Amino acid sequence: MNSVTAIIADDEPLLRFHLDKMLAETWPELTIVEACENGESALEAIKVLQPNVVFLDIQMPGMSGVDVANQLVALEKKNQLTAPLIVFVTAFDQYAISAFEANAIDYVLKPVQEERLLETCQRVKQRLASSDTDGTMQTLMAKIEHLSVGGTTNYTKWIKATKHDEIHILAVDDIVYAKAEDKYITLIASVEGGYQEYILRSSIKELIRQLDPDRFWQIHRSTLINVERLDKVKKDITGKMYVYIADNKLPVSRAMQSLFR
């Protein structure tokens, strides 16, 4: 096989560094041509450098890994590039991982384990060595779309978030609302009779994909609420609408007011 090139895309510098080091050990012949900190820079690097493989974090602020993959599909359909093989670096729960495996879509679960990375690299090598690579991106994205809009049994039940230096596993049922702030999401969860704040490194768009839309409504560009936890909805004298939830008053954008009619 000729020299194989790859791009790493992850918004966390430490994860980019460790993945680079682990790939050097598990696949010494692989050349990392770029390490990108977000989806936008990853997409541009892929266009210019045309790597064989991309190790792509799903959850990045701004343009997510899924957004990047969608863009690559569109460019490939226009014959503007040959899309690389994608290895998703993901914190998705077990249902998504099983779906990826069933459809021969490569993934690495965070935190990255050397044994799993070695197995994934072997899969990628076999795919690259095969002449049957046509439609790889279309097949991959068809499955991602299924995960994004699939039935209620496909929605995640647990969210990994941090509080100070600790990692917490939150039941989705306990999440009251989520508010995007810069590169993070603040989750308000009901815990032991009160409310606690947790931090999730994700975009609001990516979080929406994982949650049941019948239960979690986006009331503003940056705000998502669990309607089962809603106390009341009121309009002020100017016609501006607010929801009252978890002892907080949150604005509803005009575009989203129709949800409550």
Automatic annotation (TrEMBL):
It holds the Pfam family Response_reg. This is LytTR family DNA-binding domain-containing protein. It comes from Vibrio qingdaonensis. The keyword Mitochondrion does not apply. It comes from the Bacteria. Residues 5-125 form the Response regulatory domain. SMART domains: LytTR, REC. The modification 4-aspartylphosphate is found at residue 57.
